[in-house]
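Translate sequence into structure tokens.
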Amino acid sequence: MNYNFKVINIKTQVTSGSLSNVVQRVKYNVHCTGSDNVVYTKAYNIDLNPVASSDFVAWGSLTEDKVNAWVTGSSGWSGNLTAAENFMNSKVSPTETWGLPWSSSIDTFGEGQVD
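Result follows.
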């Protein structure tokens, strides 16, 4: 599967003990490219565990790479990636469709034809 992801928002707790702007939740989108060359997107969250003062990263020192590592290292990452792939596959190869096996014009109660 060809995919990428993008962090779209971060929720912080204003203060937690002596720490400020403590990251609690990260929202991100997973973008999967299907065999039809269409990009399918699913949104996910990860909730972060409380952090010890010695492991704390100050808000101003956070980088996209650091937050991305939190996402891909989270316990839910693998399951979310699988769910995104399943979502994409359900769109590329649907298990149900609507349609008629013949060409037809439909008269809608005398109001004309509908395409």
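Note: The chain has one domain: 2-95.
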